[in-house]
Structures are given as C-alpha cells and as structure tokens.
Amino acid sequence: MELFNPSYWQTFALKYGAAGLALNSFIEAIFFPIPPDVLLIALCATNPHKAFFYALITTLFSTLGGVVGYFVGYKGGKPLAIKFFGEEKVNRVHRLFEAYESMIILTAGFTPLPYKLFTITSGVLFASLPKLIIFSVIGRGLRFFAEAALFYFYGSQITGFVEHNLNLIFTISGALIIVLFLAYRRIKRGKLP
C-alpha cells in the first residue's frame, strides 16, 4: 500500500512542507506507522538552512501527539487492562513503570523504538502527564535536533549517512544512557562501591 511507502512520504513532505511534517509528527505519536524522521530528512536535505525550524516543528507536534496518545491509553486502554489483568496487577505494573518512567519516556523519544507505544502505555498506566511532556520534549528534541544539525552543517550530502547509520547510533546511545542511569541509581542507593 502506497501510504506505507517511505518514498511516498518524502514526496508528501516536499509538497506540503512544514504543515505535512507537523501532521505526520502528530499522528505518528498516536497510531501512524511512518516515523516523522522520513519527512524531516526529506525537508532538511532540500532546505538545510531551515533544518532547525523543521526539528522544532517535529518535536512540538510529536509531543502534542504523544499527549493525545496518553489520553487514548488513559481513557481506552486503562479500563481494558484492568478488565483483562485485574486492578491489582495493573497497579503493580504502574508502580514499576513509575520508578523508571522518566528514563523510559526519554529513551523512547530518542531511540527508534515506536514512540506511540510508550505514549499510550503511559496513559494506560496513568503515568505522570507532566513527565511525559517534559521527557518527550527532551528525548524527541535530542533526536530531531541532532538530525537537523547534521543537515544544517553538512547539507544534503549527509543524507545517506543519516538514513543508514543514525538509527543505530541513537539505539547505542539510548542503551548507554539506560546503563549509566541504572548504574547511577544503584550507586545512589549504596548497592555498588
């Protein structure tokens, strides 16, 4: 199906510009399978001097979509989770999620993990909405502004590198952040020398 073809969305981005990017960024955070990076890369490669503007649009609208995803999970997913798993189990998972929700949301926003799964799950587990917003802005912002910076400073010739290597770099960086965060928590609690 053409809607799931990234090249279709690259053409869409070039045709509709920032408005198309905003729409894709918003709906991808709720249900849409095409990540906003596809449109962001196409627009940044065409207009590197506007790369930071495109990153800002992507970050803001992705975060707004994440808030809607949160409410989808809160209104629709939470009652279903309680029905299938029971309130006690849902509350237990919530407490576990709550202990690490900032890191989970930050990592989901920064890495190629499906962001929508974490926004909806945050609602299902009635996580903190302010934390979702703050750490979505940080995580999504780091990702999109890093992409934009490459285009701003290196122009369209960086496109191949971004398309083929950046997801791996973000994944490794995200894993490193998690390891450092967990080590920090253990040291803080006195469990490591």
TrEMBL record:
It comes from the Bacteria. InterPro entries: DedA_domain, VTT_dom. It holds the Pfam family VTT_dom. One of its GO terms (cellular component) is plasma membrane. Residues 34-152 form the VTT domain. The chain crosses the membrane at residues 52-73, 132-154, 166-184. Keywords: Membrane, Transmembrane, Transmembrane helix. This is VTT domain-containing protein.
